[in-house]
Specification:
By secondary structure, the chain is of the alpha/beta class. The protein has helices at residues 34-42, 63-70, 152-167, 198-204, 212-221, 230-240, 255-261, 273-278, 292-299, 316-325, 338-344, 357-363, 377-381, 417-428, 440-446, and strands at 2-8, 13-20, 23-27, 46-51, 73-76, 86-87, 93-96, 99-105, 114-120, 129-133, 136-137, 140-141, 175-178, 196-197, 251-253, 266-269, 285-286, 306-309, 331-335, 353-355, 369-373, 389-390, 408-412, 434-437. The protein starts with a strand and ends in an 8-residue tail after the last helix.
């Protein structure tokens, strides 16, 4: 039996290649599906089945893409409006070599959520492992707020039943392989772990120690951000995502070509916060490379072409994959020679001031600055800098009327990367005096400065 874990950086997404005796299945594939095809070649296994544990909200599923390449059949839960694939129900079984996969309906995160039980029949008739999708993670369970506030109690109750009546009774020895790791937006406090076991989660996961009433109350009160691109992902993952067959070509653009197509395009500088602050092309939006897979969905639309600005263009393939995974296929090109080419050409450069936490501490009480905290609401409530105003970075462009134009704006987040997104938004909307606190809350704590908690 073969098991390979395929991780998608930024999304903290995990998909799986499993195989036995020349046959293989893929669970929750991503859209750029070369890795699964490569594994099938490596192990001389034909991919015959593709399973989706649920309709994903944070990335475009790659099932149709992979199926077109290898001819595999697609299977998913029945309680949603798919326009492709085959519906499965509780107890359905699939034989793949010596493996047997059995469907377990585990709603709660979504209505159609399923988990997959795996038995290695060559060894035992006992359940060996379970692929839980977004029902159970390492140290956490799936979010239950995707259908709105009025459905949270119902979904939380369904998830509790799925966990305590179906998954946890399978046995402490069963290996658990979830669809996400630490950093995913699909669970609040997912622990970083390759995999886990049912027994370990029953013993260590705080939420699994709660009664049903406590569990439901906890999930009702849970506050998580819901990115605007989630609705696009849901539309795509019901069957409307274009099949690419290959990754889009990104062409190099000269400085003159960039200037001509700048208006009407989404020009994204993917460098880190300090580099962007030190000098950037006026009018560009800063989303650092590792933040693209999540924050592009907050900041970019799906109509206008995207142009990439980097330092030396060494990571273009990675950036292209990040964008394609969340449905951004209209990538026009990149600046040839990177930002260095622009700066060496004598073109206009804009800068963002950078502050240390010590400088911020000195200016807190003088009333001359507007301190902006752009972290998520849960982070803010755990402790913020005295005098800070909270606007989540994803909401900032819709709430600029709350940010004064007659004060110097000092922005912080956890480390400075999200703050850099915010400073680029402010700069592009006419704010002149803007600073990014490098190190942000992490540096503030390291310096021993106090936080305010309501």
């Amino acid at each position: 039996m073969i098991l390979e874990i395929i991780k998608s950086e930024g999304l903290a997404h995990k998909s799986y290649f499993i195989g036995s005796k020349g046959e293989a299945a893929v669970i929750d594939p991503r859209r750029d599906c070369d890795s699964y095809v490569n594994y099938s070649k490596k192990y001389d296994m034909h991919i015959t089945h593709v399973f989706e544990t649920h309709i994903n909200e944070d990335y475009v599923i790659g099932s149709k893409e992979l199926s077109k390449r290898v001819g595999a059949k697609i299977y998913h839960g029945s309680n949603n409006e798919y326009t492709y694939g085959n519906e499965v129900s509780e107890g359905d079984k699939f034989k793949i070599g010596d493996m047997e996969l059995e469907i377990l309906e585990t709603p709660g995160h979504t209505y159609e959520s399923i988990s997959l039980l795996l038995k290695d029949k060559n060894v035992s008739d006992d359940v060996y492992m379970i692929f839980t999708g977004d029902a159970l993670f390492a140290g956490e369970v799936g979010r239950t707020d995707l259908y709105g506030e009025d459905k949270k109690e119902k979904m939380a109750g369904m998830l509790y039943n799925s966990l305590f009546k179906k998954i946890l009774p399978l046995g402490n020895h069963v290996l658990v392989f979830p669809a996400h790791g630490s950093g995913s937006v699909c669970g609040k406090d997912i622990r970083e772990s390759e995999f886990t076991t049912i027994g370990y989660e029953k013993k260590t996961s705080p939420i699994l120690q709660k009664s049903k009433d406590e569990f439901i109350k906890w999930k009702i009160n849970e506050r998580m951000v819901k990115a605007p691109y989630f609705s696009k992902m849901e539309e795509y993952n019901k069957g409307k995502a274009p099949i690419l067959c290959r990754l889009p070509y990104i062409r190099p653009l000269s400085i003159e070509e960039l200037k001509k197509c700048f208006e009407g395009s989404q020009v994204v500088d993917v460098r880190m916060a300090a580099s962007f602050a030190g000098g950037h092309i006026p009018g560009t939006l800063n989303i650092w490379k590792q933040g693209i897979t999540y924050f592009a969905g907050w900041m970019l639309n799906y109509e206008d072409p995207i142009i990439i600005i980097d330092e030396n263009n060494q990571h273009l393939d990675q950036i292209r994959r990040y964008l394609v995974r969340i449905g951004y296929d209209n990538i026009m090109g990149y600046l040839a020679g990177g930002f260095t080419n622009w700066s060496n050409s004598g073109k206009e450069i804009e800068m963002v001031d950078t502050w240390s936490v010590h400088k911020l501490k000195e200016h807190i009480e003088d009333g001359s600055i507007f301190i902006l905290d752009v972290r998520e609401i849960g982070e803010y409530e755990e402790g913020y800098i005295e005098g800070a105003h909270h606007i989540y970075v994803g909401d900032l462009k819709y709430r600029l009327d709350e940010v004064p134009n007659d004060k110097y704006i000092v922005v912080y987040c956890d480390t400075g990367n999200r703050a850099s997104i915010a400073t680029s938004i402010l700069k592009n909307n006419g704010y002149k005096g803007v600073a990014n606190v490098l190190g942000s809350i992490r540096a503030w704590k390291a310096a021993g400065y106090p936080l305010v908690r309501d």
